Amino acid sequence: MSTRSVPVSAYRIVAGILTFVLAVPGTILYLASYFWGAWLLAGACAAYLADRVLELGRPAFFSLVRSALRRSAMPAIGIVAALLLGAAIMLATGYNPLSSYKALFYGGLVRGWSVSVLNATPLLFTGLAVAFAFQGGFFNIGAQGQYFIGVMTATWIGLALKLPGIVEIPLIFVAAAFVGAATNAIPAILKVKTGAHEVVTTMMFAYAISTLSPVFIRAFGGDPSHSMHPYASDTLPEAAWLPTFKSFLPEANYRLHIGIILAIACAVLVRFILRSTSLGFKVRAVGNNPMAAKTQGISIPRITAASLLISGALAAAAGATQVLGLDHRMYQDLGAGYGWNGISIALLARNNPIAIIFTSLLWGLLDSGGRYMAMTTRTPNSIIEIVKSIILFLLLAEMLYQRIGLSLRAAFSRLRRGSDARTGIEKEIGS
Amino acid sequence: MKRFVIAVAAAVLVFAFGPGAPAFAQSSKPFVAMCTDTNGLGDGSFNDGVWAGLKKAEGEGLASVKVLEAHSMTDYIPNLTGLAEGGSKLVFGVGFLMVEQIQEAAKDEPNTFYAGIDDYFGGNVPRNLIGVSFREQEAGYLAGIVAGEMTKKYYKNSKLLNDKNVIGAVLGMNIPPVERYLAGYIAGARSVDPTVDVRFITVGSFADRAKGKEAALALNDQGADIIIQLAGLSGMGVIDAARERKFFAIGADVDQNAAAPDYVLTSALKGTTMSAYLLIKDLAAGTLKGGENRVFGLKEGAIDIAPFHQFDSIVPAEVKQAVADAKAGIASGKITVPSTLAELGIKQ
Amino acid sequence: MKVSGAVPPVLETRGVTKRFGRIVANHDISIRLEKGEIIALLGENGAGKSTLMNVLFGLYRPSSGSILIDGEEVSFASPREAIAKGLGMVHQHFMLVPTLTVTQNIILGDEPVILGHVLYRAARRRVVELSERYGLHVDPDARLEDLSVGLQQRVEILKALYREARVLILDEPTAVLTPLEVEELFSVLRRLAEGGTSIIIITHKLEEVMSLSSRVYVLRRGELVGERRTSETDAAELANFMVGRDVVLSVERGEAVAAPEPILRLEAVSVRGARGIPALRGLSLGVGPGEILGIAGVEGNGQAELCDLVVGLARPDSGRIVFHGRDISALSLKRRMEAGIGYVPQDRRGSGLVLPFSVEENLALGSCEGPPLCRRGFLDFRALRENALRLMEDYDIRGAGPEVSVSTLSGGNQQKVILAREFSRKPDFLLVAQPTRGLDVGAIEYVYRRILQLKAGGTAILLISMELEEIFALSDRIAVLHGGELAFEAPTSRTNEIEVGEHMIRGRTDRRAS
Amino acid sequence: MSGFAAVLLAPQLLEATIRLSTPVTFAALAAVVCERSGITNIAMEGIMLVGAFFSAYVGWLTGNPWIGLLGGLVAGAAFSLLFAWATVSLHINHVVAGAIMNILAFGLTRYLMMVCYGRQGTSEAVPLTLDHYRLRVPLLSNIPYLGSAVFNQTPLVYLSLISVAALAWTFARTRFGLSLTASGEHPMALETLGRSVYRVRYQAVLLSGLLCGLAGAFLSIENSNSFTEGMTNGRGFIALAANIAGGWQPVGVFLASLFFGLVDAAQLRAQSIGLIHLPSEIFLVFPYIATIVAVAGLVRKSRPPAAVGKDFNVEGGGD
């Protein structure tokens, strides 16, 4: 209701600058296991909130906060409930949930935080890839395939060209994104021309790519008679490696590379594309109602193709980051499941790019914490997979909450009214 | 030295784990651990083999042991370093997929020895790192001799054999260790009879049992009466097929006779067990040396062929003699077994 | 609960109320139906007629109130129980499975079976026998999707008869029928009533009420506002009841500026429909500036194809479309939009709006290519917001701010969003299809006023509507589409509803005569 | 020696085709039942895996493969009911729910491996497999070419053939089949005729769970003798493709599954004949390519059930 434009005060400028200045180093420090970076982030939050208060005025601000809290209540409840269910399963099968969870979170958030971040990096990219396709109404179930295309492209260029890193790394990213997009062009064309369902085609492409990848690795794996470990290609020259955090933060884990920063930047970029560009607007329109988009002159095939291509590019960027940042070579596919996990992450974030940053970190920490748990307790870390699927289930089953809410309300009203009437609990949902 | 390590390990544990410190670092024996690759224990192969070596050492009172399983490649480093933090003195990383990770782990944890089973490290190897690799072709060669002899000359000894002089191999994926096995196998069979027909099929996965079976059946349809499995878990399917169609299977890596005692003729043994055991023994004796690649072959006692079990009577003394001769020849260097298909003139 | 002496009504409701969340769709409704009687339930769109019928039929459960059959209170948990009690329903949107045969459709849900195995031969015999008994002829083996709409409705009625329905409820049965088919339907219904079946017909068409039913209930905004014997009332009184005031929609149309040169012209355009059958055959027409041409016709006579063709969702098989003297047949929808063609689609929620989008986003839909809303591929949020605020003010869009999702708006306000979007582009030509379907009277008047304003500004308007009233209220000229051909065309002042209705039924009389 | 054609024409190829296609046939039939009722099911992979695990586990515990089979069926049914609850009652998007079910199945079977066997990888072998009950049909098995391949088979292979016929019959002739079709084409029509769409869809998903359970049991206790993690290896997705290529018809789907099986069997054999020298991966990629081609090529000729994948909500419809 506050549409009157508040004159931009000096306070707001300061708050804005402060938010940015605190948030960026805070994020980087925290990701690098400098946990005091959290203070900077808290400061950034405070500055941001102050800015919002100044912008909206107090009542509007508090109603905004309330609605934000209400919106985040369900995910929080879902995650807690999933952990409780996981605990119940552990108890039932003879494992100690308390010590397991203690190890899980200690391992994921503190001890193995750098591993959590490393895990989250490719997942953030594939999550964005899946989400972008979703926004355009398309289910890219084969992000795994495009991931490997990205890996191959990065390996190939990394090995073939000997350029300074400042030139080569951006070049590799651009090329990987391009080839990844091109890979998705085939399912896109099949979808547009024949209607072949993308769930099948992208999946089969992913299988085909991962089957063929050894041929590629052999081509770049040096002489097989000398190579004792043929699943991997040759190592990329160091010039093509992504810089590590250690190069500017000495305490950081030496494997931690700046891929996560690129991924977060990518998430911000994707949000910007979806929200603020004409293309993103059209993608969302087509995803939500293709018929209406069409009658407003938006070309469905073109937008479908565009969202698929961008999706493919993002998945390929995941592969390139993994090669340049962590592996420095190509490994054969072992079903690492970046594609599948990308789907989970996108679903959990409801395709919101900014939320994907957090869901991918959640997945990453569950993975690394789960391993720590398996290492220090006897609990098998496959329980983590179960907990993950329960989280997904609980967060997507809105109906469940409506049901529970309705029956709770009915139960209350029955309590209040005694037993005079059978109150019909209807499975109504207002439209 | 030993005491010092334990003290360090204990300190690490206190800091790392707090109150819930695990129980495994309490004995005075050196603590030895292994990380499986993604196939995990129960693969009837490398992982099980190394684990058997650890158990053997534990049985002899040389060490206390622990195993940690990996489910994806990103598990490797945390597993490898985590075990060192947990006080392990020697950590085995199983499988060539860990080659990069184990080097980094070794850099990270200089006070722990790392042994990469099936790994070969080029260049300068860190002083706490040991590469353990094998001459699989020698095991393949021995199996090839048995298969070639039986299918050519002694097919009348068993109803499971035929007179077609065809033998087979089922491969999981087309990778060099598998290729080395196969090259040795073909060379061994040809050393018996140059006209022997050796056929092989790649399944495309180390975990698709149904397809492994189908590949073996296809080879059997083409007359192969002895088939070696070089396919990991898919190889279980080869044994399934042997049981169903009644032909001989040859196991690989470890003695797989127990999987189907009536059909597994023998197994080509890769001494993951022996190599692990030998390294632990060195460790216990304080003579373990890092910074090198150790290639275990027949000569070192890490490559062998499994006993014939109940087929001992079917396999004639001549065959056993031929195997023994080959062993001697290889050990003495008189026989050099080819390690690639290219050397045999087979195009890939 | 029996009234002593008298035979209880076949069907009765007492104080039925149905709420959806906070919306009250039916409030305290009591109706009564005697054996062999035909009653009508009259009301505008959204008056709550369909909800009431769904309550009767067990699809919805009443929030309060009771339903009595033969004087006994019943409570239906599902349609199955309603069917068992002798209720049969013919839905407005047919509940028929297009890929199944007529016989399968009729027996579905009540198949003659032995151990789960359907006795198709017996079922087919039964269907043939039924259709002969009631004169409802239809091929029992035809696939449903191959039948005409009229025949499909027969199948619906047969479905009810197959279940030995004593009460037949028909929801807007004539909406999709040609007048000839309507006559046939009515005679079938009368015959059924004579045979003892009780019938409820739900409609918003006064003539039908007068010609068919013996009693009529009028619903308005979910409430029962009147009950009359048909013989004791007339159309005017019922209309009054229905809309809640005296006069409907006499809008001051203003005279069309006589313009010799049409802005948009269709020249002998032909096109095939979805299943390859010619949908438009050599259609020619033109609309001039400041003129409204109303296309009357029964639904399914080529209106949908005409829309697609004019706006560019389909290409003609032959003939041309000329706009401002230029052939635009090959231009894409987008190019035509840019050239000045606007479109208010019939299906508001399906193809007019992106429901999860906010009002401002919906208003920007289609203008997201360049200035003023978009610069170099980036949306200008401030321009978007200003545009929305201005249009919301201009078009009286109420109920929410610009940032609120349109799905929360009422139907009338949603339609206003579409009008605002299309009108604000100042089109030279506008295609309007069914602009007032499902709107309340206030909204209808508003929509009419805006359309006429636009016309006064010199825009050429092609109005497609199934409502004759609407056509006559707005058009300067009226054309009738029948079987994909132009059956009739005349200035509004020189024709009347009877003449136009005749052509809607019979098509081109001149050709028939020759 | 013997040429390419000789190998391809050998009866053993047909046998191999049938063996390779049997699990896919079961799963594809499951897809048909589900999709014809209006539920898009991509959870087949997961349900199969759960079925395979429990078949092997119960078979190992009891020593009787038939009881193991029952265990697999019950587990498949129970797991599929969870899927039905999610899609039908909780109205979660079908594809999304299916994806979650797959993740759950992978995690669950791995977890249960640790709980039940204390290790990963491969489970204990069942003492007796269903292969033991191979049945040779007396006269028919003497038919040249077809006889040995089709009429000297194991129980679940016969059952898959019977299932195809039974389902074809079901769709053509039974009340249940008619309800399924109506539920997938026009659910509201079915609902207004007094038959609950929810109920029909629950039944359909349950039946598909049983079929997937059979597919899993085939893999673990008929074609082999123990459970191996991830042993379904994408067969659930191939089944989805077979369902589309087979035009949502039991017989069509059976033929499509056979075709995929044939491609796989043929590529394995083609590798060992030695006519063409190519990296083995080139052969291995054929089945995937064939799948894409089949789906892209055939998808236009048939059309999916009109309401497949769409949520159905009795009172949610409104206007």
Describe the structure in your own words.
The complex is a heterotetramer of chains A (431), B (348), C (514) and D (319). With 431 residues, chain A is mainly α. Chain A has helices at 10-31, 37-56, 58-92, 97-111, 113-135, 143-160, 165-194, 198-219, 259-276, 278-288, 290-295, 300-327, 338-348, 353-376, 382-396, 398-417. In chain A, helix 2 crosses helix 3. The two termini of chain A are 25 Å apart. Residues 225-230 and 419-431 of chain A have low confidence and may be disordered. By secondary structure, chain B is an alpha/beta fold. Chain B has two domains: 26-134 and 273-296, Response regulator (Rossmann fold, 3-Layer(aba) Sandwich), CATH 3.40.50.2300; 136-270 and 316-344, Response regulator (Rossmann fold, 3-Layer(aba) Sandwich). In chain B, helix 2 runs parallel beside helix 9 (272-285), helix 3 (76-85) packs parallel to helix 4 and helix 7 (209-221) packs across helix 8. Chain B is elongated. Residues 1-27 of chain B have low confidence and may be disordered. Helices cover 33% and strands 25% of the residues of chain C. Chain C contains 18 helices and 25 strands. In chain C, the strands form six sheets. Chain C has a six-stranded mixed β-sheet, with helices on both faces. In chain C, strand 17 (318-323) and strand 18 form a beta hairpin. In chain C, helix 14 (411-423) runs parallel beside helix 15 (441-456). The N and C termini of chain C lie far apart (65 Å). The model of chain C has no long low-confidence stretch (mean pLDDT 83). The model of chain D has no long low-confidence stretch (mean pLDDT 88). Chain D has one domain: ABC transporter involved in vitamin B12 uptake, BtuC (Orthogonal Bundle), CATH 1.10.3470. The longest helix of chain D is centred in the first third of the chain and has 26 residues, at 11-36. Helices cover 69% and strands 1% of the residues of chain D. Chain D has 14 helices and two strands; from the N terminus they run H-H-H-H-H-E-H-E-H-H-H-H-H-H-H-H. Chain D has a two-stranded antiparallel sheet with strand order 1-2. Chains A and D meet through helix 8, helix 13, helix 15 and helix 16 of A and helix 5, helix 11, helix 13 and helix 14 of D.
Short description:
With 514 residues, chain C is α/β, with parallel strands linked by helices. Helix content of chain C is 33%, strand content 25%. Chain C folds into 3 domains: 11-243, P-loop containing nucleotide triphosphate hydrolases (Rossmann fold, 3-Layer(aba) Sandwich); 248-340 and 426-514, P-loop containing nucleotide triphosphate hydrolases (Rossmann fold, 3-Layer(aba) Sandwich), CATH 3.40.50; 355-424, no CATH class.
